[in-house]
Design brief:
heterodimer, A: mainly alpha, two-stranded antiparallel sheet, B: mainly alpha, about 65% helix, globular
Chain lengths: ~800, ~150
C-alpha cells in the first residue's frame, strides 16, 4: 500500500518536473499528457479503493524528532483524493480546449499538476507536519495559478491576497499543530497510537493546561482561511482572476476543500472526548456558528454578484459553510451532511464552473445582465447547467437536495435537544438556503428566456471543453437518481472517518412523509419561488447596502495599507544606510530577545564558583586580557587600538594553552594573526580622527555595549551551567577517559585527536554546515560587491 | 625589510599550514586551522607586495590581453571544489551502505621509508574543509580589499 500511496502523491510532482520537456515536444497537446498523469493517479486511487486498502503507511522522515512521512487511507482521504485526481483529469483535458493559444502553458500545466499533487498530499497525509507541508504547497501553487496572467494588476492583487490569507491561516494552524503534538506526544493524526486514538488523554492534557479552546480556534482559523469562511471569504472572489479551469479545480476539488477536509479529519479527535449527553461542545459552537454564518452571508453576496464566476465563487464559500456547519453538529446527521455534501458540491460546482468557462469563452462576456437564452446556442451546456444548478439549489430529486436535507435534520435535532438559542441554527439554515435557491435560479436563467441579440454569434464549444462538464453532469444525474448507491459505495466510509468510535450505516432517499426537515425544505423553496420575481430588486438592495466597513474587503485593504505604511516608516528608521545604525538595532534586538527569553523561561542564576583546575598563571593571563580590553576603550589612535585588541586575543590563546586545549589555542592564534594582518591592510584607509561624539550618542553607545556584554555573559553562564552533562563528561563516560580514551577514538573515528575526531567524524555534518556558511558568506560578499558595480544596489 | 621577512616567512607558513592539515587527525591541527593559516600567508603577500603582484606574478591569473585578472574567479573555484570534496566524501560511504559521512581508516604497512602509513578517510573531508575555507576567506578579502 505504501508504494501506491507514495506513487499517488509524488507522481504529479514528477509529472510537473517533466512538463517543460514535454511541452517542447508536444506543444498544446501537453494538456493530454497532464490529464494522463492525473488519470494514472486516479487509477491508483481506484486501485486503493478496489482493494479495500485501509490504514497507516509510513516511512521515516526526521526520526530524531519522531516525525515520519505517514499516510493514511480511509473513506475521507479516498474521497478527497478521488475528487482531486478525477476532477483533475477532466480539468486538464478541458484546459486543452480552453487554454488554446494562451501564453505560459508549460508553466500552467506544471503548476496545475503540482497543485493536484499537493492536494493529494493533504488528503493522504497522516502526520501533522507532512500535512502542513502539503497544505502550504497548495497555497504556493495556487498563488502561481491565480496570478497566471502575471502582468495584470488584478491578477497580482488576487494572487497576493489569497497567498497572504491562506498562508497566514496555515501558520495559525501550525501553532495549533504544535499544541497537539505537545499534548499528545505524537505527530500522527489518525491510525494506531495517533492523536485521534488517544483523544481522551490528549484533550485532557490540553484542558488542564487551558489550551483546549485556543488549539481548537487555531485549527479553526487554518480551516476557515483555506475554505474561505467568513470573514476570510474575501480572497475567493478575487481568485476568479485565474483561468476558469483553475477556478473550477480550486473551488470544487482542491484548495478550498482542504479546509473542509481538515475539519472532517479532526472531528473525531475533538468529539471523542465529549461526555455523553453534551449536545453543544465547544467544537459545535465554533463550527456550526462559523459554517452557518458563512453559508448565509456568502449566499446573500452571491445574489448581489454581477459576474457569473463571482456568483459561483460566493456560492462555493456558501456551500463550504454548509459542509463546515454539518461537520460542526455533534450528532450523526452532522457527519452525514458533511460527508455527503463534499461529494455533491464537487460534482455540481465543477460542472457549473466548466459551464461558466464555456459561456465566457464562447459568448465573450461574463456579465450576468447581458446573458440570457443561451440554450439556443449551447443546448448540451444548457442541459448540464440545468442539472447542476437545480442540484445546487437543493431542489428534489437532485443530489444537492439530499445533503441539504441532512443539514436541516442535523440542526433541527440539535435545536430540539438543546433548545433555547440553538433554535437559531435551523432558522438561519433555512434563511441562507433561500438565497442559495435564488442565485441558483439566476444562474439557470442565463439559459432560459429569449436570446439577447446584442451577443452576436455564440460558437459551439470544442469537444474537449464539452465532454468534461457532460461527465460531471452524468455524475450529478447518477447520484440524484440513486443517492443510496453513492452512500453505500463511498460516502458511508467517509462518514465513518468523521465520527468518533463505531459508525452506523445510514440511508438517504426521497421523503415519504412530512418531517420537520421536509417542512424546512418546502419553506425554503416556497419563499424562494415567491421572492424570485423580486430578484433584481433584492440584488440592487444588497448592492446599495454594501459600502465601507460593511464589506470585509474594506478591512482587508485598510489592513494591508496600514501594514505597508507601518513597515515603510519602520524601515526608514532601522535601515538608514549607516552601518552603526544597523549594528545598534541588530545588537539591541538580539540582546532584548535573548534576555526576554531568559525572563520568560524563568532561568535562575546558577551559583558561580571558580572552575576546577584554575591556576594562578591562568588568573594572571586573564587579568592581563582584562587590562588589554580596558586599554582598547581608551586607545588614542587606531594602531594602539588594534594592538591592544590583539593583547586580548593572544592572552585568550595563552589561556587555552594553559588549560590544555592546544587545538583551540592554535585556532585562536591563527585567527588572531589573520585579523591583525587584515587590520594592517585597512588601517591607513581609516580617517585618523572621528571628532568628538555628542554626549547623548556616547551614553547610548555605552549603554548598548554594557547591555550586549551583560547578555553575552549571562548566556555563557546559563549555557555552561544549564547542560545536564558536559561534552567532556559524556565523552569520558563513553570512552572511559582517561584510561582507554585512545582506543575509543581509534575505534569510532580512526584518530587520536579528540577535537578533530569530533569535528570530522562524530559531528561532521555540523562541520559541513559551517564550511557551507563560509562559502555562502563569500558568495554573498561577491554578489553584493558585484551588484554595486552594476549599479543594482539602488 | 618587510619584503625580506615576508619572502622568508611565507613558505614556512605554507608548509606549516600543510603540516597542520595532514596531522590534524592525531595531533592539533586540521582543515580549518590549516586553511586560515594559508589565508594568512596570502594576506601577508597582499599587504606587503600588493594585489597586483599577488595576482599577476604569484597566481599568474591573466586575461587574454595579458593584464592581471581578478583572482576572485580562482578563489571561487577553490571553495566550490572544497565544498564538493567535503560533500562527496560524505556520500562515498553511502555507496557502501553506511550512514552519510562515516569515516574509516586504513593502515598501509611495510612501506619503504615510511614503514607504516595511516590513511584516514577523514583526510578527504578535511581537505574539502581546507579548500573551502581558503577559497571563501580569500574571496571575501580579495573582493573587499580591492575596493
Amino acid at each position: 500500500m505504501l508504494e501506491i500511496v507514495l506513487a499517488i502523491v509524488f507522481l504529479p510532482f514528477a509529472g510537473a518536473a517533466l512538463t517543460p520537456l514535454v511541452f517542447r515536444v508536444a506543444g498544446e497537446r501537453t494538456a493530454y499528457y497532464a490529464a494522463g498523469v492525473a488519470a494514472v493517479c486516479l487509477g491508483l486511487v481506484g486501485q486503493l479503493y478496489a482493494t479495500g486498502a485501509h490504514g497507516l503507511a509510513s516511512i521515516e522522515w526526521v526520526p530524531s524528532l519522531g516525525i515520519s512521512l505517514a499516510f493514511y487511507v480511509d473513506g475521507l482521504s479516498l474521497l478527497i483524493s478521488m475528487l482531486a485526481s478525477g476532477v483533475g483529469v477532466l480539468i486538464l483535458a478541458y484546459s486543452g480546449g480552453y487554454m488554446h493559444g494562451e501564453p505560459g502553458q508549460a508553466k500552467y500545466y506544471a503548476t496545475l499538476l503540482a497543485f493536484m499533487g499537493s492536494m493529494l498530499g493533504v488528503a493522504l497525509a497522516a502526520d501533522l507536519f507532512a500535512l502542513f507541508t502539503f497544505w502550504e504547497l497548495t497555497s504556493l501553487s495556487s498563488f502561481l495559478l491565480i496570478g497566471h496572467y502575471t502582468s495584470e494588476g488584478s491578477s497580482q492583487y488576487a494572487a497576493r491576497k489569497s497567498m497572504l490569507i491562506t498562508v497566514a491561516g496555515g501558520l495559525f494552524m501550525l501553532a495549533g499543530f504544535l499544541l497537539f503534538a505537545w499534548a499528545g506526544g505524537t505527530t500522527l493524526i489518525v491510525g494506531e497510537g495517533s492523536l485521534t486514538a488517544n483523544a481522551d488523554a490528549t484533550v485532557e492534557t490540553l484542558r488542564t493546561a487551558g489550551l483546549f479552546v485556543p488549539s481548537l480556534l487555531l485549527l479553526g482559523i487554518g480551516a476557515a482561511t483555506k475554505s474561505a469562511q467568513v470573514p476570510f471569504h474575501v480572497w475567493l472572489p478575487n481568485a476568479m482572476e485565474a483561468p476558469t479551469p483553475v477556478s473550477a479545480f480550486l473551488h470544487s476539488a482542491t484548495m478550498v476543500k482542504a479546509g473542509v477536509y481538515l475539519v472532517g479529519r479532526f472531528r473525531p479527535f475533538f468529539l471523542e472526548a465529549v461526555p455523553e449527553g453534551t449536545h453543544l461542545p465547544e467544537w459545535s459552537l465554533v463550527f456550526v456558528t462559523l459554517g452557518l454564518l458563512t453559508m448565509t452571508v456568502t449566499a446573500i453576496l452571491a445574489v448581489q454578484a454581477t459576474d457569473i464566476k463571482e456568483l459561483l465563487a460566493y456560492s462555493t464559500a456558501s456551500h463550504l459553510g454548509l459542509i463546515v456547519a454539518g461537520f460542526g453538529v455533534a450528532n450523526a446527521y452532522g457527519a452525514e451532511t458533511g460527508a455527503f455534501h463534499i461529494l455533491n458540491h464537487a460534482s455540481f460546482k465543477a460542472a457549473l464552473f466548466l459551464v461558466a468557462g464555456i459561456v465566457a469563452h464562447e459568448a465573450g462576456t461574463r456579465d450576468i445582465s447581458k446573458l440570457r437564452g443561451l440554450r439556443h446556442d449551447l443546448p448540451v451546456t444548457a442541459l448540464v447547467a440545468g442539472l447542476a444548478s437545480l442540484s445546487m439549489a437543493g431542489v428534489p430529486p437532485f443530489n444537492g437536495f439530499y445533503s441539504k436535507e441532512l443539514l436541516f435534520e442535523a440542526t433541527y435535532e440539535l435545536a430540539h435537544e438543546v433548545g433555547g438559542l440553538t433554535w437559531l441554527f435551523p432558522v438561519v439554515a433555512v434563511f441562507g438556503s433561500v438565497f442559495t435557491f435564488l442565485y441558483s435560479l439566476k444562474f439557470l436563467s442565463l439559459f432560459l428566456g429569449d436570446r439577447n441579440d446584442d451577443l452576436g454569434h455564440v460558437h459551439r464549444p470544442p469537444l474537449a471543453m464539452l465532454v468534461p462538464p457532460a461527465v460531471l453532469g452524468l455524475l450529478v444525474t447518477v447520484i440524484s437518481v440513486d443517492p443510496q448507491l453513492a452512500v453505500d459505495a463511498l460516502v458511508g466510509e467517509v462518514y465513518g472517518s468523521t465520527v468518533p468510535g463505531e459508525a452506523h450505516a445510514f440511508s438517504v432517499g426521497l421523503p415519504t412523509h412530512l418531517t420537520p426537515p421536509v417542512a424546512m425544505s418546502a419553506i425554503t423553496i416556497g419563499i424562494g419561488a415567491l421572492l424570485w420575481p423580486q430578484y433584481d430588486r433584492i440584488h440592487d438592495g444588497i448592492r446599495a447596502l454594501l459600502h465601507g466597513p460593511v464589506r470585509a474587503n474594506w478591512w482587508y485593504d485598510g489592513g494591508v495599507k496600514g501594514l505597508t505604511a507601518g513597515s515603510k516608516s519602520v524601515a526608514s528608521r532601522v535601515q538608514t544606510g549607516l552601518l552603526r545604525t544597523y549594528a545598534t538595532w541588530a545588537l539591541g534586538a538580539t540582546a532584548a530577545l535573548v534576555v526576554g527569553g531568559y525572563l520568560v523561561a524563568g532561568v535562575g542564576f546558577p551559583p558561580l564558583e571558580l572552575a576546577e583546575g584554575m591556576t594562578v598563571p591562568m588568573v594572571l593571563v586573564l587579568l592581563v586580557a582584562l587590562v588589554g580590553a580596558a586599554a582598547v576603550g581608551v586607545a588614542p589612535s587606531h594602531i594602539a587600538g588594534v594592538l591592544t585588541l590583539s593583547i586580548v586575543g593572544f592572552m585568550v590563546a595563552i589561556f587555552f594553552i594553559l588549560a590544555d586545549a592546544p587545538d583551540l589555542a592554535l585556532t585562536q592564534l591563527v585567527v588572531e594573526t589573520l585579523v591583525l594582518v587584515l587590520f594592517l591592510l585597512v588601517l591607513d584607509r581609516l580617517p585618523v580622527y572621528y571628532g568628538t561624539p555628542r554626549v547623548s550618542v556616547a551614553v547610548r553607545d555605552a549603554a548598548l555595549s554594557l547591555i550586549v556584554g551583560a547578555t553575552v555573559f549571562l548566556t555563557v553562564v546559563f549555557s555552561t551551567a544549564g547542560s545536564p552533562d558536559t561534552i567532556g563528561g559524556s565523552l569520558s563516560r563513553l570512552a572511559g577517559v582517561p584510561g582507554e580514551h585512545a582506543t575509543f577514538f581509534m575505534d569510532y573515528g580512526g584518530g587520536y585527536n579528540v577535537v578533530n575526531v569530533v569535528l570530522v567524524d562524530f559531528r561532521a555534518v555540523d562541520t559541513l554546515g559551517e564550511v557551507t556558511v563560509v562559502a555562502m558568506a563569500a558568495l554573498s560578499v561577491l554578489t553584493l560587491v558585484r551588484m554595486r558595480e552594476r549599479g543594482e544596489a539602488q | 625589510m618587510a619584503r625580506t621577512v615576508v619572502r622568508v616567512t611565507v613558505p614556512i607558513i605554507l608548509v606549516t599550514a600543510l603540516a597542520l592539515l595532514l596531522q590534524g587527525h592525531n595531533q592539533p591541527g586540521g582543515g580549518f586551522i590549516g586553511g586560515v593559516l594559508t589565508t594568512t600567508a596570502f594576506v601577508l603577500v597582499y599587504v606587503v607586495f600588493g594585489l597586483e603582484f599577488l595576482q599577476s606574478d604569484l597566481l599568474d591569473v591573466r586575461n587574454e590581453s595579458g593584464e592581471s585578472h581578478h583572482a576572485v574567479e580562482l578563489y571561487r573555484v577553490l571553495f566550490t571544489v572544497g565544498l564538493t570534496i567535503a560533500f562527496a566524501s560524505g556520500l562515498a560511504p553511502m555507496l557502501a551502505g553506511l550512514p552519510f559521512l562515516t569515516q574509516g581508516i586504513l593502515f598501509l604497512e611495510h612501506l619503504p621509508l615510511y614503514e607504516e602509513l595511516e590513511v584516514a578517510s577523514a583526510l578527504a573531508f578535511d581537505l574539502g574543509v581546507y579548500l573551502a575555507v581558503v577559497g571563501g576567506l580569500l574571496t571575501v578579502i580579495g573582493e573587499v580589499g580591492s575596493e
